[in-house]
Amino acid sequence: MANASSARAANQVLAALPFLEWRRLEPHLELVELSPGARLYESGVVLQHVYFPATAVVSLVSSMQDGTCAEVAVVGSEGIVGVCAFMGGGHALSGAVVQGPGLALRMPARSIAWHADRSEALMQQLLCYTQALFTHMAQTSACNRHHALDQQLCRWLLLNLDRRKGNEIFVTQERIADLLGVRREGVTGAALKLQKAGLIQYRRGHIAILDRAALEGRSCECYAVVRRAYDRLLRDSGSRQCAPRGRARASISPIASMFATA
Description:
Layout: H1 4-10, H2 12-15, H3 19-25, E1 30-34, E2 39-41, E3 49-53, E4 57-63, E5 69-75, E6 95-100, E7 102-108, H4 109-118, H5 120-146, H6 149-161, E8 168-169, H7 173-180, H8 184-196, E9 200-203, E10 206-209, H9 212-218, H10 221-239, H11 248-261
Antiparallel strand pairs: 1-7, 2-6, 3-7, 4-5, 4-6, 8-10, 9-10
Helix pairs in contact: 4-5, 5-10, 5-11, 6-9, 6-10, 7-8
C-alpha cells in the first residue's frame, strides 16, 4: 500500500464514497505512517487534522488529572479519528494514541468540515460511522463498570484483533492494564487463565490468539453488541441509507449540541 488510492480502498468510510466525492477529497488527503505510542491529539484541544486509518489502529482514551487513562474506543480501517471536527464543536472529547502502527490518510480538520457541510454523501457516511462509534463508547463504559476483568480482556483482544491482520497482537500486559484502567496484576491473572485454557499464548509484548471462537464464548455480550454496530455500518455504507436523503444537516444538530456541551 503505497499511495492514497490504495489507502482509500482499505478505509471503509472512504471506500463507500462515490468516486466523484473521493476525487474532491483526494487533494486534501496526505498519506502518513503512524508509529506505535504516537499521540495524535489530546482531549480538549482544537482538532487540526482527522485520520482515516488504512492499516493503523488508534485508541481513543479518556485521561484523568493524575495521569492515568482508559480506552473508550478503538478505531481501525472501519472509521475516522477526530469525529468532532465535522460535528460542530471542533474540540476533541478524548485523546487519540496509536496502538498499532500502520498507514492512514490525514486531512485538515477545516477541510473535512467544509466538505461534509457541502456533500450529503460524505455526511451520510460520517454520520453512519459516528453512530457506530457512539455505540462502541457507550458499551465500553458499561462493560468496564459491570463485567469481570477476564471478560473485559476478551472483549479488548477481540476488538483489536478485528482491526489487524493475522491472529497476533503486539502489546504488553502493562499497556493493556493502562487502557482498561486496571492494575497490571489483574491483567496478568486474567491472561494466565486464558492461556491455561488454550485460548491465547502470551510472551512479553506478544499475544497470539489460538482459539478465537472460544475467546468469543468467554467474552461478555459487549463484544457482540459493538461488532453488530460495525457490521450494520458496513451494510448501511453499501446502501448509503445511514441518514435520510436531504436531511443530513438536520440530522447532525442534536449530536453537535452534545459535543458543544460536553
